[in-house]
């Protein structure tokens, strides 16, 4: 069988698998085709893929010939139609919130897997692209903030006096938030963090950050580690607490997203106007509406000396290691569906069925079925 | 008496003193005039200066009325002519290597002090702008590199495998180099450093970096902590050692400058061509010719996937804390020449005479005299 690695669209710098992943696939007796220039922006040129045993081909050849098309961003509908009839499509299509594509895949009797559907179980951790990309995003958000801030992150004791450390506020202590905390601490900042999930408190504190307490949050352990929507009274008190903390902060990094919903508004306009001149807000929820009232997606705006960065695809800004991690996640998943060099789709396996959008046009997992019936 | 703080030229974001320094001057019974908008790019607006007790005035009023003009970048010749006849000019004019300006100041019978002339003695440490700005530059160079690098700086052990730490090579372990080492270590990189001064070895190692040894360097302790020019045989072996280290590195930060001379060439073209795709070179000597053969001043070029950043005035990219440190250095110096609210120029003080370009048109220190006689 043949696995194919497609080139991503113009605005994406990552690639689904680097040459090192090709070597692993070859060791499984799997052939690999790579689209010309697929790894260029991740600093892996065609020659490196060839040295690892891949064949470099053009896009239409790849789509027609391979058994599994591996990518990150979704292909166009015309391109999916041009794929071999039995071949499998893989990527990160946001399948539950992209009904047009999901319905199309079902209608065309396709078999497709979408990596964001990987169950959040211990066994599936090594395939969890949401976690690995959130690690990249949290790290990169802090570097971006430190680079924009007109002040130092660390404390300095110099012959000419003391520079106090910067104060960083992280809203949301999921994987991205925790990585942001760890990176800001590394750089010497004083870090405060807030999360509606009480479970986050211990993790925040173990990284050396201070947890901002707001009593009475709704906590739903069945939400798979995600935060859930909160009642009005809590939201009011939360806003006051965040307002108070944000106006003392040099950097605010917001990471609060609710899958398939508009991001919660955490930083109001009045808060930005009361912040320190020179302060920086990095809004990682910009693509789903933003956690800050003044965020503009994919833009940096400056209001009263406060920079607000509406971050888009931040993982693409660390393309080499992001692709390395993505490829590892991919290989760990492919290991489940390739046996002795042949495709082996075992839907008894909860990871295989959980990640599947549809198999020969039929949904095999309850989340997709539910979405279709709505 | 009145101290004046001028607005810097367009390309400069720092200001000589922030509002907090104005408060100190006021406590010495000194009046302060600040040029409209002087602190804007350092996030200190006119209102803040006013609250601290300064009067906001236009540029020509300031130049005519104040007793000491405090700035960073040099003023134009016409502006110096417009200053009150007895007033003192202060800034960072690179006086020893700017003969045109120095001769003009002497010719016009001016009194001027240039902060880069502050002697490198223990007592003068608190006024040493070269050291404080080098601290800013070393920190900022690492942030810039980490932001450009397509890889993580720190090591990560994740469910999907291990990310190895980035390898950073620092050439020159002066103040900027040492701060770069410390910052890269904070961010979790593996750091190697090289310096021709054997004295640097211990400092490098105490920061947790590895010292790259090349035997037989010329070391001149009378050079005030600066490196001196090296013989041909040493330069050849040094280039080989640097070539070998640089081709293994993810980031190279070069800081080697010799005052008044062209910067030594440390990274040859063949070295860049042999570096890893995605690697980053930050050349802090770009304004004096560059330590890398392919550096272009004030530009970032990409050769075979290697980014080479020809850094200009990097201290200006951390304007708030850089101005804070600059202002502290300024205050510590002004304390020597202001007594009970009055100007008090005591040239018996080695710091006062050492920092003086000329007093009423006469050079008072041997470095300036020597330069004029050449």
From TrEMBL, chains A, B:
PROSITE patterns assigned: ALADH_PNT_2
SMART domains reported in the protein's UniProt record: AlaDh_PNT_C, AlaDh_PNT_N
Record Gene3D superfamilies: NAD(P)-binding Rossmann-like Domain
Residues spanning the membrane: none
Primary enzyme class: translocase
Alanine dehydrogenase/pyridine nucleotide transhydrogenase NAD(H)-binding domain span: 146-310
Protein name: NAD(P) transhydrogenase subunit alpha part 1
Organism: Rhodonellum psychrophilum GCM71 = DSM 17998
